[in-house]
Amino acid sequence: MLNDQGEYLGSITEGDFLRHILAVGTTDRKAHEKYRIGGLLRPDFCPPLGIRATPDQVAQALLRQNFIPIVDDRNCFCGIVTRRSFMAFLVERIWRKRNLCTVWYRVFCHLIPITQRG
């Protein structure tokens, strides 16, 4: 959730919405109109990292949460890093470092029958 200036305030999950629905006791939209989204906000949930965070800091944070909001020096939201995107970053980094991209590609191509190649 962001304020009008684009600053990161916190995150709201699907579970937060479901708990709210259970607490209210109905799924009727009219019954929920008197509530504000800000009331569901958990500012301490999923704390952000700065845009200058190191890969080690991101990895440590991703051990505790599924995604990391990234903010700039003004606390303005820049985006998120997911576990999946970070794993892809690490794999690519390792493959490039070891020059395995071309080796893996050659192996992969031998595993796929020629009729299935695009």
Describe the sheet with the most strands: 3 strands, mixed
Poorly predicted regions are: 109-118
SSE order: HHEHEEHH
**Strand element count:** 3
Distance between the termini: 41 Å
Radius of gyration: 21 Å
Q: Quick check: average pLDDT?
A: 82
Q: Structural class of the helix and strand makeup?
A: alpha+beta
Helical amount: 40-55%
Beta strand %: 5-15%
Count of helix runs: 5
Q: Can you list the strand order of the major beta sheet?
A: 1-2-3
From the spread of the alpha carbons, the general shape counts as elongated
How would you concisely characterize the structure shown here?
This protein has 118 residues and is of the alpha+beta class.
How does this structure look, described?
The chain is α+β, with helices and mostly antiparallel strands. The protein contains five helices and three strands; from the N terminus they run H-H-E-H-E-E-H-H. The chain is elongated, with a radius of gyration of 21 Å.
What is the element layout, followed by pairings?
Layout: H1 14-24, H2 29-32, E1 49-50, H3 55-64, E2 67-71, E3 77-82, H4 83-97, H5 100-111
Parallel strand pairs: 1-2
Antiparallel strand pairs: 2-3
Give structural attributes.
5 helices; 3-stranded mixed beta sheet; alpha+beta; 118 residues; 44% helix; single chain; disordered C terminus; 3 strands
